[in-house]
Amino acid sequence: MSSSSSNRFRRDPPPTHCECEEPVILQTSKTINFPLRRFLGCVNYYHGSACETFYWVDPDLPNEYYKKEVFKLMKKVKLNENKIDEELKRSFDFERSTMQKQAVVLQMELKEMKASIGFYRKLVVFLCMVVFILLLVK
Ligand SMILES: [Zn+2]
Asked: What are the CB-based long-range contacts (under 8 Å, 24+) for 84-93?
């Protein structure tokens, strides 16, 4: 399995475009046989493209031991990235819910302040009327 693909490693000039006439992109293999080995390929390589443009950029790892170790490290990094993503998501969700609660409290405070402003406004109007009437009576 590894021999057929590794035989495709060659030193002729790398392709710039694929069979679909799209510019090739640098990609990284994540398979157990070619962990982290970079290649140039079709932009749709991982999306079921029938395009066969493929060019290894890196040489194959020298033996199965290195391949296994690199693959294990790759999996470990992925696992840690997932843990970090989960932790960030949990922290984000907590912050969001805290902020939503604070927003509710602030909205209630705003409502109360508006209500008390309304009350004081009516009180001022009432006192002005009292003063006005007292001035008329004198
Ligand atoms: Zn293509």
From this structure: none
